[in-house]
UniProtKB/TrEMBL annotation:
Lineage: superkingdom: Bacteria
Every NadR/Ttd14 AAA domain range: 8-164
Pfam families given in the database record: AAA_28
Protein name: Putative ATPase
Gene3D superfamilies: P-loop containing nucleotide triphosphate hydrolases
Amino acid sequence: MGEAPRFVMISGCSGGGKSTLLSELKRRGYHVVAEPGRRIIAEERDGDGAAFPWVDAAAFAKRALAMSIADHDAASGLTFFDRGIVDAAVAIGATRGEFPAAEIARYRYDLLFFAPPWPEIYVNDDDRRHSLEKALSDYDRVRQAYLDAGYDPIYLPRDTVSARADWILERIAG
């Protein structure tokens, strides 16, 4: 594989176990950057709520892009990201905003692990209000955007959280 990866993206289907997996990696002592969307929702709960994705999807998507770029800029060493710039770009495109192709080209991740749909573990919560059908539609768009950006996704197996974390770490060790 050459040089060890520094920036590792974990993206894929909403409700596919990404955040739980990243929590496990963090528990093991790795640097993890939490999903921008969930952080924005938490900030909006403490603010005026104007940029909730179900209130103003365009404002939410723009904030997700800005946050993802800031996360990328602030990261150093081996860092695992829960969603990022490409994911935010897809959200911007879904709101008919200008697709930020220059940002996708400039801010790159070394490896992409992709969580495929996993309907058996999909649940809604206060932050994830969309249906599984919407999650599947979003998954297809996000997957295609990563492919279009030149990424070669490594698909996560359906397994326990611990086994998934071990599996990722084995691949990074090369």
